[in-house]
């Protein structure tokens, strides 16, 4: 697994942790997941085992090539969708937090 992919995934998760924690502290219900977020997770769940398969020393030739190339396709798509979903969640979360700031007693 390329280190930069791991860094991007963990960074996004940290951003979401801060957002979700802030929303929970304000007493709001958790936000619903999005289709984009689910698609991103699926892509990453396909990519990670394929990177592992491609890195196994016994796997060579066509299987290694197909595994590695497929892993890259799913990883790149997954990371892009993961951050797109984060943007959706951030927009929704910020709107929710702004509305609660303007509501008396919240």
What report would you give on this structure?
The protein has 106 residues and is mostly helical. Helices cover 80% and strands 0% of the residues. The chain is built from 3 helices and no strands. Helix 1 (3-25) packs parallel to helix 3.
Detail the topology: elements first, then pairings:
Elements: H1 3-25, H2 35-55, H3 61-101
Q: Major sheet, described briefly?
A: none
Please mark out the parts with pLDDT under 50 across 5 or more consecutive residues, or reply none: none
- Report Rg: 18 Å
* Rounded average pLDDT: 91
**SS elements, strand count:** 0
What percent strand? under 5%
Structure annotation, total helices? 3
| H-E string | HHH
First-to-last CA distance: 44 Å
Q: Structural class, from secondary structure content?
A: mainly alpha
Helix fraction? over 70%
Can you tag this structure with a few keywords?
elongated; mainly alpha; 106 residues
């Amino acid at each position: 697994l390329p280190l930069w992919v791991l860094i991007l995934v963990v960074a996004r998760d940290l951003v979401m942790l801060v957002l979700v924690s802030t929303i929970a502290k304000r007493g709001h219900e958790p936000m619903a997941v999005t289709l984009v977020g689910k698609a991103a997770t699926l892509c990453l769940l396909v990519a990670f085992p394929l990177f592992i398969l491609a890195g196994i020393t016994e796997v060579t030739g066509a299987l290694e090539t197909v595994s590695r190339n497929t892993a890259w396709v799913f990883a790149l798509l997954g990371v892009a969708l993961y951050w797109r979903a984060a943007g959706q969640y951030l927009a929704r979360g910020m709107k929710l937090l702004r509305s609660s700031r303007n509501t008396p007693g919240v």
